Amino acid sequence: MLGPVLETLIGGLLTGVLYALVALGFVLIFKASGVFNFAQGAMVLFAALSVARLSEMMPLVVAVALSVVIMIVLAYAIEFLVLRRLVNQEGIILFMATLGIAYFLEGFGETVWGSNIYKINLGIPKEPMFFFESVFPGGLLIDREEVAAAVGCAVLVAALAIFFQVTRVGRALRAVADDHQAAQSVGIPLNTIWLIVWAVSGIVAIAAGMVWGSKLGVQFSISLVALKALPVLILGGLTSIPGAIVGGLIIGAGEKLAEVLLGPLLVRWFDLAGGGIENWFAYMLALVFLLFRPQGLFGERIIERI
After folding, report:
1. pLDDT over 70 at 274, yes or no
2. 249, 13 contact by CB (below 8 A)
3. How far is the C-alpha of 149 from the C-alpha of 21, rounded, in Å?
């Protein structure tokens, strides 16, 4: 029994890393603008479509490099056409703007790249790896793509942590997130900061889109993966990069273990059909956090003084 449970736990943790990749984009935008970017899922989809269609005509490395340029140009267009005109506006106005950007990117992506299901071949063997065959019957099965994604995510998170904590631009990003007007008063160019953070978020979207596109195929349901990132953000905190990783691991492992361990108990106790727990477990766990710790595990507690 220990072998299947341990295999499920490892698979859940690796899936959680994929959730965390999407959640990182949300955190980056929120840290710089203080607004929830509803368009992040559409950005992941657009980035995956770019890589998939360009890789049909050129080597994958070149396709990824061109996709980076595309996402940077897209970030500039969003900043110039939308965000620049909404400086110092209420958070709800910025949120609605990202909602409009999300629908535009989905439609624009279909217009430019097509609406079929496309493949991204990362060159990683599809055959699973088996470990500890001498300890557990049949060994522990681990997906190679998810392991590669976990390694890539670790490198990306380390780079982002250094970027935010060490560089002048990173410190400026944190200042802008605290107060737009105060940041502008000390000479921080708000428009430039937003351009940088949207560009970085676009690059993170490329990483997430490549992994999810290789795993599921590049299709428009990828944008719905962003919905699974919401519980991750609630658990980890909207402003914490480490929180996005920890939240992703908790959600990924929790939903897999709940399906395997909790499902049979519910069937036995309440005579249910079983199944489907993986679809709602993350949201129920997020609801519990909202009730008892709304700022998340790593979020900053908001204290208002009168």
Report:
1. no
2. yes
3. 9
